[in-house]
Write a structure and sequence with these properties.
The chain is built from 10 helices and 15 strands. It has an 8-stranded mixed β-sheet. A 5-stranded mixed β-sheet has the order 11-12-13-14-15, with no helix packed on it. Strands 8-9 form a two-stranded antiparallel sheet. The radius of gyration is 19 Å and the shape is globular. Bound molecules: zinc ion (ZN). The site of zinc ion has 6 residues, from loops.
Length: 325
């Protein structure tokens, strides 16, 4: 069964809950996966049921949250540029909220990566003539069936109008009003088509699912994601940011560089522990039983990625590429 089949929408979802909070993080419902539920089933339920909230980061810069991955809007005199497009089943609600907030038509859409909760509005926007921009591998992932191990995500085969019309390989610069957008790909990390977007002079960075605040991440092994790549990308982001930078994660409220650093340090420690267990010849189940995330779970296990699923993804990432090193 296709796990992405949507259940009927509730009336509640038609109500846009406008929570405009100047300079303050939004809250987000979280929860553990129930027995037998995949990570993606649990995440999809959350994305379908969470109210849509709007946070103003600074003049002309908004984050829409709840309906999938965070959607960032950058407004200039005549248009809105979006970063990510949320969940397909909530695109009308999102589009209405964007227009009411920005009063400008969306003309460009950047995808941070190919996953359904960040590209669900691509068909809608692409059909209306919006230019979709992404790292070149996003086009490949969106047009072929993908099966992501351990999380239950099966996706791909987007229609042509949902695919990026403008792609880049490692770096691209865009201008939206007074904001310069620098799009960077640091190699495979969460997926093989991640884009990190730096906004200047706003001093905001949109990092997609390289970081979710504050959950264990998904490492998409179907599209060359890896724990080493995640850490590499985070090191690049940390080098390009300062204490004042607002970090917009793929999910959850915006946060500071200090929290991004804590997350990076957690990944480094978990990687180190699992690498040692792999080198000692432990099987995946033995590594899971050793609970290498134990002292981090209180802070990072409140999302839809359980410690076990995270451990299995890190194990596979290390055992598949560098177990013999
Ligand atoms: Zn993702």
């Amino acid at each position: 069964m296709n796990v992405l089949n949507r259940r009927p929408l509730f009336v509640l979802k038609q109500m846009v809950v406008l929570v405009v909070m100047m300079m303050a993080p939004a809250s987000q419902a979280t929860g553990q996966a129930r027995t037998g539920e995949t990570v993606i089933q649990k995440a999809t339920e959350q994305f379908e049921e969470s109210p849509l909230t709007i946070t103003s980061l600074s003049q002309g810069l908004y984050v829409f949250s709840g309906d999938g991955g965070n959607v960032t809007a950058i407004v200039d005199d005549g248009s809105t540029l979006l970063i990510d497009s949320g969940l397909a089943s909530r695109i009308s609600e999102l589009n209405d909220a964007i227009f009411r907030t920005t009063m400008r038509p969306v003309t460009r859409l950047v995808n941070t990566h190919w996953h359904f909760d960040h590209t669900g509005g691509n068909t809608y926007f692409g059909s209306s003539g919006v230019t979709i921009i992404a790292q070149e591998n996003v086009k490949k992932e969106l047009s072929s069936a993908e099966d992501v191990p351990f999380v239950g995500l099966r996706d791909g085969h987007y229609p042509p109008q949902a695919l990026p019309g403008l792609t880049y390989q490692s770096s691209l610069t865009l201008q939206q009003g007074s904001q310069k957008l620098t799009l960077e790909n640091y190699g495979p990390a969460h997926t093989d088509g991640d884009t990190v977007i730096y906004l200047s002079p706003a001093n905001v960075v949109v990092v997609g699912d390289i970081f979710s605040n504050h959950f264990y991440p998904i490492i998409d092994l179907s599209s060359r994601g890896s724990i080493d790549g995640m850490i590499h990308s985070l090191d690049q982001i940390l080098a390009q940011t300062d204490e004042q930078t607002k970090i917009v994660p793929g999910h959850g409220p915006w946060t500071t560089r200090a929290n991004l650093k804590d997350y990076r340090d957690m990944l480094v420690q978990v990687r180190h522990r699992i690498k040692d267990l792999v080198a000692a010849g432990k099987t995946m189940d033995e590594v899971v039983a050793a609970v290498p995330t134990k002292d981090f779970d209180a802070r990072w296990a409140s999302g839809y990625v359980t410690p076990e699923v995270f451990t299995r993804m890190v194990f596979s990432s290390l055992a598949g590429s560098s177990a013999s090193r």
